Amino acid sequence: MDMSNQGNDELQAVDLDLEWVHLLMSAKQAGIAAEDIRRFLSEKALQAM
Predict the structure, then answer these.
(1) d(CA 49, CA 45)
(2) Where would I find the Sin domain in this sequence (predicted)?
(3) Measured by CB atoms within 10 angstroms of the end CB, which terminus of the chain is less buried, N or C?
């Protein structure tokens, strides 16, 4: 029996991708540009380093 968790990693990646899609679609509906979200997250990532 294969005990690797590669499948779990793939499912987590899909879940993460779906969360990003949901975030960007919600932002679009709220009138926030995707580029504004990317800039905000990039700035926060730089601050965290």
Answers:
(1) 6
(2) 7-45
(3) N
Helices and strands in the chain: count of H runs, count of E runs: 2, 0
Record the tokens describing residue 45, joined without a space.
Answer: 């990532």
Count how many residues are written for the chain.
49
Q: How confident is the model at residue 1 (pLDDT cuts 50, 70, 90)?
A: very low
Compute the average pLDDT of residues 4-19: 70
Residue type, 32: I
Q: How far apart are CA 15 and CA 7, in angstroms?
A: 12
Sign of CA dihedral 9, 19, 35, 44: negative
